[in-house]
Amino acid sequence: MNTRVIATAGHVDHGKSTLIHALTGTDPDRFPEEKARGLTIDLGFAFAQLGDYTVGFVDVPGHVRFVKNMLAGVGAVEVALLVVAANEGVMPQTAEHIQILQLFGIAHGVIALTKAALVDDETLELAELELLDALEETTLAQWPIIAVDTPSGLGLDRIRSELELALERAPAPVDLHRPRMWIDRAFAAKGAGTVVTGTLTLGSLHVDEEVMIEPAGRSARIRSIQSGHTRVASATPGTRVALNLAGVDHHEVQRGDAVVGLDIWHTTNVVDVEFQTSGSHELPARGTVSVHVGSGERTARWRRLDATGTYGRLRFDRPLALQPSDRLVLRSTARRAVMGGAVVTDVAPPHHWRSPDSSLTTAAEGVITTTPWLNLQQIIGRAGLDPTTAQHQLHQSQLTGAIHNIDDTYIAGSALQHLTTSIHDAVTAYHETHPDEPGANLAELSNAVGIDARKLRSVAAMLTDLVIDHETIRSQDHLGKASETPEGRSFLQQVEAAPFSPPSPTDVGVDLKIVKLLVREGLVEQHSDLYFATSALDRAKHVVAEAIIAKETLTIADIRDLLGTSRKYALPIVAVLDSAGITRRRGDDRIAGPRAEQAALG
User: Of 55, 307, 422, 501, which one's alpha carbon is 20 to 30 angstroms from that of 588?
Assistant: First the structure.
């Protein structure tokens, strides 16, 4: 289906609802109070066929008291129908609605000069000139102005044809495969449960698809979809739709919430924006503003970010599913007057703001430059990209070295360079303060440089001048393992050659620091001022265990002779055997300990 949405705009009692009724055959006023008073209070909806387009009309109220309802109706459309009565001309709400259409970026539409039969030709011409004057220097100045008399049908055919042309000129709805529908109605339908309506943008939705309701973070399943009073299996961007949802009560959903696709939207209550001034209004350095986004109104704290007031930061009272390029309308909380608009530039801004960097070539690169270590889904949500475009941008940036992929997360090249410098500095500092240690502990180093141990290991593995050894990192030219040095290997060979009468480091001229490192590696054990190879003590445990099981009792002298050593070395070896449970003292003799059999088998 070639489906689109058109919203009305204009002052109260200028004939918006009557015109929609004439174009569609449906009265958009839904409430008895509206029909009794002849006054549109809330959004109304109607459908019609305009050439090849199936159009959903959103009729908005024109009274000043219901501006927030009007704003809820135009926040997700590309084409508008501005209505001005010829007998009254441009009125206060006409001017405000023109301003709102501009701020929401609605650049295509048609202007209906209604109630034309109530005025003479001269008055009609004056009304058109006044309208052109009001539209000067706005994009609406290019819209066709059509005199209309709804009761007689004057101008209705031309309105239809011009609206069809406006739809052709307007940008076609884009499918970024990341659907979002701002909810403008939520109610319980008899026998169906929760139903929400809105204008679908940025992606398609399908029956049985799982979606999220934001900002509540509630998941729901789409039971059925209606568009134009017809059940459909799926809905495309630019469509007025009604979703029957399972898994959420209608009391848990309200106007201004959003139905979004799973895992592809970033919800946030802090955004950076570029401000668009409106008339004489100037936003103060900080304060509270009422922000209209999508179909909802939110209160936000505002703070200027630069001296000119071009950029600012908004902190909302609750999170929203937003993306860069989203348009907002700001109104004064005191006077309820439109102050201006804003375009979202960053949905996950850093604490310290930086002016936009024109050297960044892609949206993905901009997001990663601000916040490193994001995965693909996070980049899609923060940059407002479809998955295919995001992957292409990341690939291109990797080719240039602007972005790097590490463990399926991304970091900017400049940030990676800064990180590697920090790692080198931290390792060097550790070696300087702990020269006898083989290397810096991975967990401690990760805290020092501010990334988790897994990422630190991956980054360090890329650096050829660093060595990762189990849970330590050292410089390539640092001593590292003593067992890998010529002096360390030589000492090990000598103590293993005389296992039960090992030489002292002094006897063989080995630096005691090397021996201490061998002890740390577990290859040598120190007992008093004697150093035994660990393998020698393991062998002693086995030999003595076999003998003591066979003879039941051994003396120190027996063990000395069994190992072929002297009493100087036998005494510390027996102490090791006692401690390990291989032997147990009985007077001056030794008997089998609780672990003797196990040692004998080993």
Answer: 501
The verdict on 185 and 144 lying in the same domain is: no
Q: Across all residues in the chain, what is the average pLDDT?
A: 88
CA distances from 58 to 29, 201, 317, 526 (A): 11, 15, 28, 86
**Amino acid residing at 471:** E
Give residue 240's domain range.
Answer: 180-261
Residue ranges of the alpha helices (H) in 142-243? 156-169
Identify whether residues 55 and 195 lie together within a single domain: no
- What are 242-283's pLDDT values in tens digits? 999 999 998 999 989 999 999 899 999 999 999 886 555 567
In the block, which residue shows the tokens 């001593």? 479
Distance (Å, whole) CA 114 – CA 146: 8
**pTM here?**
0.75
Determine contact, residues 223/193, Cβ cutoff 8 Å: yes
Judge if 518 and 592 occupy the same domain. yes
Distance separating alpha carbons of residues 364 and 402, to the nearest angstrom: 11
CA-to-CA separations, 117 to 39, 91, 151, 580, in angstroms, rounded: 21, 19, 9, 110
**Can you give the length of the chain in residues?**
602
**Of residues 92, 213, 102, 81, the one with CA closest to residue 156:** 81
Q: Judge if 58 and 145 occupy the same domain.
A: yes
